[in-house]
Amino acid sequence: MTPNDYTVWTYLAYVVLSVGLTIWVARTLHRNGRVFLVEAFHGNESMADSVNHLLVVGFYLINIGYVTLALKYGTKPHDVQTAIEFLSTKVGLVLLVLGSMHFMNMRAFSRMRHRGLREVAPPPVPPQERVPVEA
């Protein structure tokens, strides 16, 4: 194999792995995040589904944008060793970006859920009378 062949095959493997991981994480977030959003939107399922879909679209745009931009950077592989190192570095960075995006999504879901619960909970009732304290 020529050095150029290593670059092409490594890039293809990187794109396939990275996009596959992005799709898997996005589907997992979409499926499991719905419960939190339905609760945050007081049972309004259409609103929760709409927000959930928009979050997934943003997730795809950011992560796939990163994957494609990151192709340009780094030393090009010229043998098997550098191809493996290139692939592990690139996929590792994608995993870090996916993990960061997952953390941000979970934080957003948590905030929405807490805000929704705060709006539903009635305010505390003040005491109606005083109870005398015996000495």
Task: Give an overview in words.
By secondary structure, the chain is mainly alpha-helical. It is built from three helices and no strands. The chain has helices at residues 3-40, 45-70, 80-120. Helix 1 (3-40) packs antiparallel against helix 2 (45-70), helix 1 packs parallel to helix 3 and helix 2 (45-70) packs antiparallel against helix 3 (80-120). The longest helix has 41 residues, at 80-120. The radius of gyration is 24 Å and the shape is elongated. The termini are far apart. The model has no long low-confidence stretch (mean pLDDT 84).
Based on secondary structure, the structural category is mainly alpha
Low-pLDDT parts are none
| Straight-line N-to-C gap | 95 Å
Give me the strand/helix succession: HHH
Compute the number of helices.
3
Mean pLDDT: 84
Descriptive keywords:
135 residues, mainly alpha, 78% helix, elongated
Summarize, please.
The chain has 3 helices and no strands. The chain is an all-alpha fold and 135 residues long.
List the helices and strands and how they pair.
Blueprint: H1 3-40, H2 45-70, H3 80-120
